[in-house]
């Protein structure tokens, strides 16, 4: 079978490509710059890449850019979308590529009669921010959908970009009558295949690179290998449908720091919260649907350890960390 992975060089996508090649698929991966070895070398070195990986140049905001990568594919994994927090122009840098880019990719999918299912990498960002309180008793599940007004009021531009993109994708899929499944992971950590530091792994790197304080935030955490597997299962299992939230555990940054302290007792870690307010409460995320994809989550402790070992190996943790 032949499948397409958009944004193939990214953190999550690289693992999807690796597992797809392992399972015998022919993979057409889109990248923005096929001539940049930092974006392609790690993919070209994967087992099976020589025989079954094909790279295509595509840009989210160029109409029809993904046609060649998608043509003839049985399935499409659309992962490409900008994930940064520091932006000057949220509309141009985050929202347009997320929303118009998703519709651009889905447009190519609807032109290619071979495509049987699209697996869209959405996010818990498109689920959990609807203004309802999130406390330890509350169980967030796939029936929640984030509210664009709540995102705008808190200037959560990345969260807004993912919310608008998923909403637009469902409307498009219904209108065109094609089969789409979304994967909605929380903060994804674990080993990096790519040589570039991505935003979610950076959240762990920051704690070890001289931060004086940790953020007053509680996030769900999940291992990149579980996320990549869930994408492939969502394509392969015929009855898979709707949205799949992926969270092993929700933890406040103070708890992440505690886990790091246990794993690396000599590490320099922040011991103060960034503000004096009460800790943002943790909450729960239902694991029921993910179970139906056969996902048996890697525990957060192991995921954090794998992240740190990978960050060390790739020199993303400086000497000041004392580890
Ligand atoms: P990365 O930054 O590693 O990957 C993002 C990918 O999107 C890169 O391949 C990047 O290409 C591509 N991309 C960005 N802008 C464009 C554009 N204008 N045209 C073409 N490609 C573009 O991040 P992740 O792997 O973490 O993110 C992948 C997906 O997963 C995103 O949709 C993200 O929203 C989602 N996600 C991530 C989570 C996480 O914690 N990591 C959690 C939940 C969802 P290039 O390499 O050329 O920059």
Automatic annotation (TrEMBL):
UniProt keyword annotations, A-Z: Flavonoid biosynthesis, NADP, Oxidoreductase
SUPFAM superfamilies registered for this protein in UniProt: NAD(P)-binding Rossmann-fold domains
Pathway(s) it belongs to: Pigment biosynthesis; anthocyanin biosynthesis
Example GO biological process: flavonoid biosynthetic process
Segments forming domain NAD-dependent epimerase/dehydratase: 3-240
GO molecular function: dihydroflavanol 4-reductase activity; flavanone 4-reductase activity
E.C. number(s) listed in UniProt: 1.1.1.219, 1.1.1.234
Catalytic reactions on record: (2S)-flavan-4-ol + NADP(+) = (2S)-flavanone + NADPH + H(+); a (2R,3S,4S)-leucoanthocyanidin + NADP(+) = a (2R,3R)-dihydroflavonol + NADPH + H(+)
Family: Belongs to the NAD(P)-dependent epimerase/dehydratase family. Dihydroflavonol-4-reductase subfamily.
Function: Bifunctional enzyme involved in flavonoid metabolism.
Name of this chain's protein: Dihydroflavonol 4-reductase
Organism: Centaurea solstitialis
Lineage: Eukaryota, Viridiplantae, Streptophyta, Embryophyta, Tracheophyta
